């Protein structure tokens, strides 16, 4: 399968714990995005990488959130000191800048904070 | 401040008929529009897109229409099939941005 993959698919954690999610984009894609989706809403943009550089961050990305893409391939999203309001689906997408604006999404990581 | 609006949370259509999903936007800087389809427990799947320099784009059973003056776009599915039952999201992007701005989605149910 050459699509975007995310791990884990589900994560249940207790409030105050740290969690880390991984995203592997489509192999030749140089752009990578993180979005968050809550019930009844569309995905909301969190952050964007071009290769290894993080070029844009949403105001939704509080100081407890950090994202990396160290070698311009896979990316991690870490949430520190999780809160119940962090419960959501975290979606990763990738695209190839040369081919336009279409972003291709992974299956998401469902986070539940108890 | 929802910049992309899908005002119909749900739509039910009989198999074989046309499904029309609507989307409105407020930001005149948006110049590229996309439709995604989402099944439960899966990520959104890209369906079809349209640039602001066009007013129509067709791909098989799916056609997207763009009315820039009205800031309105619509997705037509003809003929509708039960497998089309999913949530459809409209998204928009500006030429200087990277973030897709999504609507809240419309849940389409195609009944046999």
Assembly category: heterodimer
Low-confidence stretches of chain A: none
Unreliable stretches of chain B: none
SSE sequence of chain A, one letter per element: EEEEEEEEEEE
Please give the structural blueprint.
The complex is a heterodimer of chains A (114) and B (112).
Chain A: E1 5-7, E2 10-13, E3 19-24, E4 31-37, E5 44-50, E6 53-57, E7 65-68, E8 75-79, E9 88-95, E10 104-105, E11 109-113
Parallel strand pairs in A: 2-11
Antiparallel strand pairs in A: 1-3, 3-8, 4-5, 4-9, 5-6, 7-8, 9-10, 9-11
Chain B: E1 4-5, E2 10-14, E3 19-25, E4 30-38, E5 45-51, E6 56-59, E7 62-67, E8 72-77, E9 86-94, E10 101-102, E11 106-111
Parallel strand pairs in B: 2-11
Antiparallel strand pairs in B: 1-3, 3-8, 4-5, 4-9, 6-7, 7-8, 9-10, 9-11
Structure overview:
- The complex is a heterodimer of chains A (114) and B (112).
- Chain A has strands at residues 5-7, 10-13, 19-24, 31-37, 44-50, 53-57, 65-68, 75-79, 88-95, 104-105, 109-113.
- With 114 residues, chain A is mainly β.
- In chain A, strands 2, 4, 5, 6, 9, 10 and 11 form a seven-stranded mixed β-sheet that branches. Chain A has a four-stranded antiparallel β-sheet with strand order 1-3-8-7, with no helix packed on it.
- Chain A is globular and about 40 Å long.
- The mean pLDDT of chain A is 93.
- Chain B is an all-beta fold and 112 residues long.
- Chain B has no helices and eleven strands.
- In chain B, a hairpin with a 6-residue loop joins strand 9 (86-94) and strand 10.
- The interface between A and B is medium-sized, with 27 and 23 residues.
Overview features:
heterodimer; A: mainly beta; 11 strands; B: 112 residues; mainly beta; five-stranded antiparallel beta sheet; 0% helix; globular
């Amino acid at each position: 399968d050459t699509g975007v993959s995310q791990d884990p698919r589900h994560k249940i954690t207790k409030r105050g714990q740290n969690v880390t999610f991984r995203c592997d984009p489509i192999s030749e894609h140089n752009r990578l995005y993180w979005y968050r989706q809550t019930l009844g809403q569309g995905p909301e943009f969190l952050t964007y990488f071009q290769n290894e550089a993080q070029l844009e961050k949403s105001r939704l990305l509080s100081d407890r959130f950090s994202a990396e893409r160290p070698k311009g391939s896979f990316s991690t999203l870490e949430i520190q000191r999780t809160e119940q309001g962090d419960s959501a689906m975290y979606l990763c997408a990738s695209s190839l800048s040369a081919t336009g604006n279409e972003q291709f999404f992974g299956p998401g990581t469902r986070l539940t904070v108890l | 401040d929802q910049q992309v609006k899908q005002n119909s949370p749900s739509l039910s259509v009989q198999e074989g008929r046309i499904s029309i999903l609507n989307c409105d936007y407020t930001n005149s800087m948006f110049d590229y529009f996309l439709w995604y389809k989402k099944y439960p427990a899966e990520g959104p799947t890209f369906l079809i897109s349209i640039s602001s320099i066009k007013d129509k784009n067709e791909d098989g059973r799916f056609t997207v229409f763009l009315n820039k003056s009205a800031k309105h776009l619509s997705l037509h599915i003809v003929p509708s099939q039960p497998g089309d039952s999913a949530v459809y999201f409209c998204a928009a992007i500006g030429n200087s941005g990277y973030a897709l701005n999504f609507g809240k989605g419309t849940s389409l149910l195609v009944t046999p």
